[in-house]
TrEMBL record, chains A, B, C, D:
Keywords: DNA-binding, Repressor, Transcription, Transcription regulation. SUPFAM superfamilies: Homeodomain-like, Tetracyclin repressor-like, C-terminal domain. Coiled coil: none annotated. Residues 44-63 bind DNA. The lineage of its organism: Bacteria, Bacillati, Actinomycetota, Actinomycetes, Kitasatosporales. This is TetR/AcrR family transcriptional regulator. Residues 21-81 form the HTH tetR-type domain.
Length: 211, 211, 211, 211
DNA sequence: GATGAATGAGAGTTCATTCAT
DNA sequence: TATGAATGAACTCTCATTCAT
């Protein structure tokens, strides 16, 4: 009688599961481009409907609200980010060089995907009102800072104190997010590309020089 | 003369000018606290009405739209910020120490005024859809980076190249804004207060150590 | 497909088309009575909502604005009017008698539908600010004058010049609309019903008597 | 103590009376042009304020509401009209010719003062919701029809019945107002100027030809 | 008398969400 | 499952009117 209120896992063979995640991905893709273009508050559900090629009802079948779409979007973006972070330390080699490389990678990805920074800023500011989003960012931040700490410790060659390592890691994390923020918001004719890796190098050198 | 829309500048003696700016300040103060608490999109004009103690009509007498309030708010905040920046270089002394001091000041002000970072993040993200706001941030950024460059040049004792100086200044600016962003968004039980000044010191040391 | 705004024409079988025009008719009927009663500017969307038995959202699903409702109302009223005009000349017989009959019909319809003249006046005056409405009236007027010219030519038995025919047709059209206007606006205790047909007869006689 | 609620006649010497009517005229002039341009509902009190060169308070000192301005405007326009009508019959001569002349005068005045017809239509439609305006139009109409009846009686040379005279007069009045209405609303490339006088001539001829 | 800042009820419109089919 | 028509609370902004000065 009653119609269930979301995607059914009951009696779900693999077909169902596949469709389910395909649909959700379809919706999240649409939301990604729409949010990046119009911002969360500037986007109407109808925009997502149109961009996804699905119907309004379908959207609400797979997500219970606009907010839930944003939350899931953040979860997925940060999950992917953590995945690629997880691959990082596996690669051996000079820690300082790896930090610089990570910075350059990040810098390049901002340039290659121009909607990334704007979207991130949009979602970041959403975090202030949506606890689930805030939690995801906080969790990711923790992981990220831990990784940076490890790399900084290795890169500083034992010259820096634990407190300095922590300060450096927090500063690096802030620098990276701040860089993205400026990328999204500041229009510079000259452009400030490619300086991030260099800055990381300088900071590492500073840590190393501590007596 | 005719009363068209908004406060009259015609025949304005000092009384009028005083009332005008008092009213605008009253409204901007209200908007500041409301935006900080609820966010721009979460704030209704009625919230500002209530917080200001004025009537709806009065708000629209002094500002033509909600957006204009936000723009003026940003303009004023950044104007004040530039003013206090302008006082900085006047003080002589060690440039490196001054940079650290600025960082600590900033860090402390975030702590003492807990709504500052959230409000900033909110307004920052507005900049993506409101060109006038974006322009204000861009202009401020330019000034800020120029100041940081001067200080870094002095602090590095000639050891760093122009390019390194620039990268460092951009990195510092990013670090500061990113720090505020994390302050607004990341809930850490331990807290990461007071690390900013230290991080700046490390970065300066790094610049100095460049051969 | 996407649900953007307004009823879908995509995949519309007859059911859909039927519902669509039923709903629009429902809204236009409501608007007709509300506009007649309160005038366009005196009517609130909520009045139409209430009169239609639909919700506010439904109204805006079928019409994008209050103005569009008025435009469509005019379009439909004049379309119907043209339809009944089109039937006129088909009937043979004495042209003069037919003109008088048309006048009497018009006169009677004003009496039988007391809200017709007030509504017409309301919409007429809207035409001054809404170009689409003005266009509809202009087009209708052209058709109407052409028909009157044909009838007058036939009725005058060749006695009148082309210029006189045209002047007479314009005068007749003006007389008819002016009659409605007075019906809507002038409160005469005696009433001036039934004089229109007679007046038309006099004018025709005048045309015939031209040497 | 208490401030009176309108222009004072107390202690009024002629100076006061003169100022009073000058001010009211100033306001009515402004309202005339503003209403003609924007329509009654499209005009804001601020528009009248601006056009009059007075202050908002002054407007409300001389008129108690926007509606009262419209009412007084109609009263004055129709009063002037009646005045010039009153001069008409004084001039002797052929009644038919005089009717045609009146029509031509009217036609010319519409052409020379292009805002007249639009303004009239606007005020006419206001009459439907503002009883005082309706009353003014009704009274004027009565006077006008009486005059037309007199002229038609004289012009018809006794050939027409009282009923025919009355129908003719009502028809003429309708024709004239309808003509103005079309002037305001219908955009014809060819233009239909100068046909009104001719049409009146035809109608008179028709009355004369009645046996 | 005159000014224009201030009021606040209410207008048209939007849009996240629901639900009959 | 899927659709898109329907809902209605809530929004920003307007503007006739008032009143302290």
């Amino acid at each position: 009688m009653g119609t269930a209120r979301g995607p059914q896992t009951t009696g779900s063979d693999e077909r169902n599961a596949a469709r389910l995640s395909a649909r959700r991905a379809q919706i999240l893709d649409a939301a990604t481009s729409v949010f990046a273009r119009l911002g969360y508050h500037g986007s109407r559900m109808d925009d997502i409907v149109q961009a996804s090629g699905l119907s309004k009802g379908a959207i609400y079948w797979y997500f219970k609200s606009k907010e839930e779409i944003a939350v899931e979007l953040v979860r997925q973006l940060l999950h992917d980010e953590e995945q690629s972070l997880a691959g990082e330390p596996a690669a051996g080699g000079d820690a300082g060089a790896r930090l610089s490389a990570m910075a350059d990678d990040f810098s390049r990805s901002l340039r290659e995907n121009p909607s990334r920074a704007p979207l991130a800023l949009e979602l970041l500011s959403l975090g202030q009102r949506i606890p689930a989003i805030k939690k995801h960012f906080t969790d990711y931040h923790e992981t990220y800072v831990a990784l940076l700490s490890d790399l900084l410790r290795a890169a500083s060659g034992g010259a820096a104190s634990t407190q300095q390592i922590r300060a450096g890691a927090l500063a690096l994390a802030a620098m990276v997010d701040g860089w993205a923020l400026h990328e999204a918001l500041i229009t510079t004719p000259s452009g400030h590309r490619d300086g991030l890796g260099e800055a990381v190098g300088i900071l590492v050198a500073g840590l190393r020089s501590q007596v």
